């Protein structure tokens, strides 16, 4: 009987070890699968081979700034990092930098700057688009999971701590990016993004916030706090979708957009050819609106009137709308 109990004890121990090893193997497979899914989702900032236009980034409207409640800087700082690193847009400053530049221009206009400063009117680059980042929701603790406790109990040591950190707290965030065309005021793109704590686990912190240079980009809590990192991943998701959505738009937004208008300054005539000879298409009176087509021969511009008549007039006889 003693031998029987001994064999039974050995069999029981072997069975327990087998079950434990099977559980560990299953958990390791789960961890590997989850890690691959996370790393696939945490994509790098998208890169563009060509510029999609110039863009300014403005804070969302409203008196309540949600980012201050999370002790985060303005989301515009984060989006500007994305824009700068992606190369998809030319970033134009309409914030503090612009205010400082306008002070310099005021000094130039007042004659206070040294000669040759080359600061004057007509030098500021126009923004083709305006981007506004906003937050739909940020849930600090949207629920937990038993996975962390289960895995932490099955696997000890450092591996157990790694597995146990997969989904202890499901922090989530939903954001939206909108892009408006400054010439037509049309909302040309809108993209929603989702982020969660899982997106920054299992090496993503190092691969994104480290190698992407996000940690030293001056975005503070977006790189240093969990909720900030979750919101960052949500904005990255939205920005990637937005770039893909706008990828088919023309690189020269100003040329492809609504044409700039002009106002006839002095009475003149519209001719059928740029030589300004022969029979006139029609007469134009001061105050009438014309639309340059973009074709020019010296100071002679081709224009259309409000009725669709097309012809050539001297650019000295009308002023472009500003």
How would you explain this protein's 3D organization?
This protein has 322 residues and is of the alpha+beta class. The protein has 10 helices and 12 strands. Strands 2-1-3-4-5 form a 5-stranded mixed beta sheet. The longest helix is centred in the first third of the chain and has 40 residues, at 2-41. Mean pLDDT is 74; it is low at 37-42 and 142-170.
Kindly report how far apart the N and C termini lie: 103 Å
Name the beta content range: 15-25%
Oligomer: single chain
Largest sheet: 5 strands, mixed
Sequence of secondary-structure elements: HEHHEHEHHEEHHHHEEEEEEE
- The structural class is alpha+beta
Rg, nearest Å: 31 Å
Overall body shape: elongated
Query: In what order do the strands lie side by side in the largest sheet?
Result: 2-1-3-4-5
| Low-pLDDT stretches | 37-42, 142-170
The helical percent reads 25-40%
Estimate the mean pLDDT confidence.
74
- Our count of helices gives 10
């Amino acid at each position: 009987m003693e031998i029987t109990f001994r064999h039974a004890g050995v069999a029981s121990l072997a069975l327990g070890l087998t079950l434990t090893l099977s559980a560990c193997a299953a958990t390791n497979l789960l961890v590997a699968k989850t890690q691959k899914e996370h790393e696939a989702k945490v994509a790098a900032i998208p890169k563009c081979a060509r510029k999609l236009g110039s863009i300014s980034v403005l804070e969302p409207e409203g008196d309540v700034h949600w980012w201050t409640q999370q002790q985060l800087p303005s989301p515009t700082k984060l989006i500007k990092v994305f824009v700068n690193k992606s190369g998809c847009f030319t970033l134009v400053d309409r914030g503090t930098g612009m205010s400082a530049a306008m002070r310099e221009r005021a000094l130039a206009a007042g004659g206070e700057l040294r000669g040759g400063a080359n600061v004057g009117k007509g030098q500021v680059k126009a923004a083709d688009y305006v981007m506004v980042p906003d937050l739909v929701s940020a849930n600090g603790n949207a629920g937990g999971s038993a996975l962390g406790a289960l895995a932490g109990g099955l696997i000890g040591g450092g591996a157990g701590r790694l597995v146990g950190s997969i989904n202890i707290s499901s922090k989530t965030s939903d954001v939206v990016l909108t892009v408006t065309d400054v010439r037509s005021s049309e909302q040309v793109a809108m993209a929603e993004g989702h982020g969660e704590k899982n997106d920054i686990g299992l090496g993503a912190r190092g691969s994104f916030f480290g190698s992407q240079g996000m940690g030293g980009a001056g975005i503070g809590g977006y790189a240093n706090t969990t909720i900030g990192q979750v919101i960052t991943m949500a904005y990255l998701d939205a920005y990637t979708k937005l770039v893909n959505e706008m990828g088919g738009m023309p690189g020269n937004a100003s040329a492809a957009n609504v044409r700039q208008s002009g106002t006839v300054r002095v009475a003149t005539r519209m001719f059928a050819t740029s030589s300004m000879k022969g029979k006139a298409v029609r007469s134009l009176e001061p105050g009438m609106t014309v639309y340059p087509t973009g074709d020019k021969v010296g100071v002679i511009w081709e224009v259309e009137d409000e009725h669709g008549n097309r012809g050539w007039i001297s650019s000295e006889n009308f002023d472009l709308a500003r």
